[in-house]
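Protein in question passed on here:
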Amino acid sequence: MRSVADLVEDLGPALVVGTIGDLSGQISTVSVSDPVHPTPLAEETLVVAVGFSLTDCARLQQLAAQAGSPAVLVKGASLPSVRAGGAALVVIDPAADWGHVIALARRSVSSAPVLGTQDNDSLFALADALASLCGGSVVMHDPAWQLLAYSGGDAPDDVRTQTLLGRRAPSQTLDKLREAGVIDHLLHGELVHLQNGEIEGLTERYAAGVLVGGQLFGTIWVTPLAGTDEEQALEGLRRAVDVAALALLRHASIASSHSPEHDLPFTALLGGMHTERLVAERLNVALDSGFVLAGLRPLASDTTERAATARRLVTLARSYCQAYRVAALAAPVHDTAYLVFTSRDNEERAGAVRVLTDLHQRLQSSAPHRAMLSSSFTQLADAASVRSLVDELLGLAERRGWVGLTDSETVQASWRLAQFREIGLAHPALLEGPGMRLVEHDRVHGGDLLETLRAYFIAVGDVKAAAASLGLHYNTVRYRLKRAQEVAGLDLTDPDQRLLAELQVRLLSS
């Protein structure tokens, strides 16, 4: 938590024209408000008054004081004539860019935990805990090889000594690790065992990268005790990675200042990590409020290009949601961009559909993609399984050639049918019978009996409608249907035979 005075100092004299009122109030969050879309005021909230004039300041100051907001930030060339009591007033240069000012304010307010000792203390406690798991002394680095924390124990070599004194891994050692391929192994989630002297200056080490959703959040280096069994050391390191993942994710989330550009907990949640509480905090809702997940997958065929476009889609989606004050988080995973919205009732889900429709249309020209919206789900902890379903449906959309935005609730039948097809392909005996006999007949004789029967089923038994869809005379269709029954050994008047035949025909021709 930061004081108003701290905020003013962080913004600096280049932006701040002047202040009025008590600057000792504490700020824990930033809220943007404008005359068209006023934001409810709250305690410990800095109100950024976009679009308000200096003549509005007295009223804003009064409302902020009543709500317990410590300060209002507004643009102006000079200080207005308002009372000094109540909420503080911070006047910003009118030529300043609001986006820049808001980003600076959020960074200032959210940076307090990083500057304090609580997070560092917890990381050092974590290092001690990992040391007991691994049976040796531990050093943890962040992805930039800055020292995060270390456990107790004597320094066994010069590299550890240099690391602890310099607060980062020695550059010459990193170069040697890179040349030996060790860093590449860590980035791929592999455990590494370095023998004594294998890397100049290093005694024996075990090392692992802490990856969440394919993203590196830190590395763990263990100097084992004498006589440590390799198998036990590696097993302890595996458990250490699992233990450290959530703590390093939380640390990275705090260090990112909770800015819209860093939805790390959401990325981890999609990867199966238990970060639902962090995500709920970001959305400012309860864990069981109700949610809906969207997947945006680029149309590019090249996998590298798809992944790059997915990251671009996330950036554009975040900008859109911030501009229109939509409560959502966005994150890329491999070649897909994902967004999560709150969906506490049908009205809120309909709102998410409208937002995603507008977002999809705006982004389609610059970053062509397919979009899929899930059904509403109650528990945020189910996000990873819902993501798997969205991925399946995006795959189905690609196979079927669906373009644009698809609401999963409108394609449930197609998806279930696709699942039946997968089961049928895995168990070929289920497809044996009339359907396969027609497939074989058409292959040998170059016929169209399967297609004709499919058109008949789609037309719900209306021969004239089936003929029209095929561009044939209905008598031709009648003849083909009679022939199809003969070839397949099928009686269309038998309900069970007709149901089995229709299912097989749809599966074999989909």
